[in-house]
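Following up on my earlier thread - several people asked me to post the actual chain instead of describing it. Fair enough. Here it is, all 71 residues.
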Amino acid sequence: LSAIVDAEGLNVTQEEMEEYVVGAAQSIGVDPETLINYFGAAFIKGEYLKEKAARIIIETADVAEESASEE
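Reply from S.P.:
Thanks for posting it. Predicted structure:
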């Protein structure tokens, strides 16, 4: 995922980071400041960038359906 982040030049805006932190904090039942203090802003940003890279993979995947072969 890191290679995709680099190749695509992905970045996180301050607004995106704030929204991500709030959502992540809510999902585990802590306040955003606690989350940042525990994990650190750089780690959280890295995780968000990896999620963006994963979304690119999912959105651009060429999925082909296989038909069941009869035996």
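The CA atoms of residues 24 and 32 lie 8 Å apart. That should answer part of your original question.
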